[in-house]
Amino acid sequence: MIRGKYNRTVYDPEVHPKKAEDLAGQGLIDIEIARGLGISRTKYYEWKKRYSDFSDSVSRGKEKPDAEMARAFYRNCIGYDYEETKVTAVIDKNGKPVGKKVITRTKKHRPGSVLGQMFWLRVRQSQEWDPVLSSPGGGVDRVPALDKLPEHLLREIAEGRGVYHNGEVISIEDFERLPPDDEEDEREEDTGKEVTDE
């Protein structure tokens, strides 16, 4: 094992927990926190196991950026209103600015992210949204990995305008015209042989 500057650091309960909490509060991951403390990754994990005050400090530090990220993610999922400010110069007949500026404020809306909404529901309400779509006939079609479906198809499913069925997204109307699953099974089992009563 190579002994370098990282292995010489001795744990100081007055310094390291506070510093680790500050570094974690900046959104750094474990390896970056270890570097910031001047220790190896191995020593970092050793300290987390050995010193509960150190481990608790890292956890506390990570809570703030995690909470901020969760709030930002939630906001992007549901959409939000914002004001856009545009500053333009007033120009005379010759095309030269006359020193005046016009400030235009426009209220805009950023719609929610369908992918984010589906991910949220899949994680928070996995029983209902794993994502599983039930057909009227009682059959179930599994939706493929979300990242494989184009945005417009995800939007159709999320808005209730489409259903994933047999490898494609079809309209609700077309889906309702399909025979129930048990009828499809009967047709598939039909061998074409004529059955006679004896």
Q: What's the end-to-end separation, in Å?
A: 86 Å
Spell the H/E element sequence: HHHHEEHEEHEEHH
Low-confidence stretches: 1-6, 131-144, 182-198
Q: Report the strand count.
A: 6
Total domain count: 3
- Integer-rounded radius of gyration: 30 Å
Given helix and strand content, the structural type is alpha+beta
The average pLDDT score comes to 76
Please estimate the helix content.
40-55%
Task: Characterize the biggest β-sheet.
Answer: 2 strands, antiparallel
Question: Can you characterise this structure?
Answer:
- The chain is α+β, with helices and mostly antiparallel strands and 198 residues long.
- The chain has three domains: 9-75; 79-111, no CATH class; 114-188, no CATH class.
- The chain is 45% helix and 21% strand.
- The protein has helices spanning 16-25, 30-37, 41-50, 52-78, 114-124, 151-158, 172-177, 181-189; strands spanning 79-91, 97-111, 132-134, 140-142, 162-165, 168-171.
- The strands form three sheets. It has a two-stranded antiparallel sheet. A two-stranded antiparallel sheet has the order 3-4. Strands 5-6 form a two-stranded antiparallel ribbon.
- Helix 1 (16-25) runs parallel beside helix 4.
- Mean pLDDT is 76; it is low at 1-6, 131-144 and 182-198.
List keywords for this structure.
disordered N terminus; 198 residues; flat; two-stranded antiparallel sheet; alpha+beta; 3 domains
Compact overview of the structure:
With 198 residues, this protein is an alpha+beta fold.
